[in-house]
Amino acid sequence: MTIGGRKRTGRRPGVTESRDTILGVAQRMFAEGGFDGASVRSIAKAAGVDAALVHHFFASKEGLFTACMRDAMRPELLLGPVLDGGVEGLGERLVRAFLRLWEEEPTRAKLLSILRSAVSHPASARTVRGFIAREVLGRVAEMAGGRRPDVRAGLVGSQLVGLALTRYVLEIQPLASLDREVVVGTVGVTVQRYLTEELPVVA
Question: What is residue 127's predicted lDDT score, i.e. its pLDDT?
């Protein structure tokens, strides 16, 4: 719609539609330019809305990036079956849920954009670390009940992020083509040890 020959920006019909449009544009622009390369103003322009509407929905660029991560990872759905089974087998359930998330479309594309942004831009990395520690791995480590859950969550994170990079980003063979359950059984043992066993680094 135009007003006096000028394209109108601002609220589109439907709050959900506007929010989803902004989120989709932000995911693409964060993937292309990283956290530092995408501004609220540029995202709003590409989405056809006012920057004020972006702030209305997400408060800040950090809030928007966090919303992109939440949309991709869906921690409430990811962790439900992981935490419900108790401590025994926790590592395998976490790895299985993580791999399933990566192997779904369009979730995989969203996760790829976040991971690529995080490894290329320090600001993205800080936001990703905070979100994963708070919303995902911290909750798993707390549930496991071992000492220093923060250290344990960090160790698990190193395993899972490394797995995602080698299997889905770099596609290093033969890991990239291994059967999912083979990966679950192999990596899950290490994750379980990080979560539940006594570790030299944990004092």
Answer: 85
Q: Indicate the SS3 state at residue 85.
A: coil
- Residue 151: its H or E element: helix 149-164
Q: For the segment 140-190, what is each residue's pLDDT rounded down to a tens digit?
A: 999 998 889 999 999 999 999 999 999 998 999 999 999 999 999 999 999
Letter for the amino acid at 110? K
Nearest of 166, 162, 159 to residue 194 by alpha carbon: 159
Q: Is 7 helix (H, G, I), strand (E, B) or coil?
A: strand
- Residue linked to tokens 């929905």: 57
Give domain status of residue 48, yes or no. yes
Same-domain check for residues 63 and 112: no
Percent of the chain whose pLDDT exceeds 90: 53
| Per-residue confidence (pLDDT) for residue 202, from 0 to 100 | 61
CATH number for position 122:
1.10.357.10
- Run of H or E including 2: strand 2-3
Which structural domain, as residue segments, surrounds residue 16? 2-69
Q: Which positions of the chain have pLDDT values less than 50?
A: 1-8, 10-13
Residue 56 in tokens: 């209305």
Would you say residue 62 lies in a domain?
yes
| Backbone dihedral angles phi then psi of residue 3, each to the nearest 5 degrees | -125, 115
Overall number of domains in the chain: 2
CATH number of the domain bearing residue 59: 1.10.10.60
Helix, strand, coil fractions of the chain, as percent rounded to 5: 75, 0, 25
Residues 79 and 160 in one domain: yes
